[in-house]
Amino acid sequence: MADPVRVVIADDDVLLREGLASLLERAGFDVVAQAGDGPQLLEMVRREKPDFVVADIRMPPTHTTEGLDAARVIRDEMPDTAVLVLSAHVDIEDAMELLASGHRIGYLLKSRVTDVADFIESVESIARGASIVDPALVQELVTARRRNDPLSVLSDREREVLALMAEGRSNAGIARRLWVTEGTVEKHVRSILTKLDLAETGDDHRRVLAVITFLESR
User: Fold this and answer.
1) Which DSSP string do the residues of 185-215 spell out, in sequence order?
2) Which residue in 72, 75, 87, 111 has the fewest CB atoms around it within 10 Å?
3) What is the model's pTM?
4) Is the pLDDT score of 170 beyond 90?
């Protein structure tokens, strides 16, 4: 029988910390230490060398990114240690930085802990090598990408026309490719230039700027 996964938990909320410890121990994990702030977490991890760390992102003294900072150090010093950070809020920047650090990593909202079976399953998956991202974060990332996509204002047909412009095709060439009239393509091009809010200079120059926008968004 394999040895139980050794866990260190860090959260300044004692009730939540004890609750997490109880949940994990009932699920077969071995909680070897608990911490209430970032420095204490690092001290215990260095001493216990656990397999898994569960940490709140915001802990004393500043309640900003102590848990994340500690996680960064842990990943640097002990890259094989699994890390799950818990947050009360979706913070894309913090999450992406953490998730970029490799395998056996997780980012979950604290509200996810209320679904015990789902939480334990996530912890077990991370321990086995997976990376887990909270569904709320995924949705936020998708929304942010849409929000930041300059081409989101274009219709599907306008995107097609712009893609063909990027291939260096003239309006006539685009018309032949899409089986439409050259006049229809000209209307699409005018609409694209207007929607992308490109300054009124020369049409040729605006076409180049539109193509650059297209290429940068890929």
Assistant:
1) HHHHHHHHHHHTT--SS-HHHHHHHHHHHHH
2) 111
3) 0.66
4) no
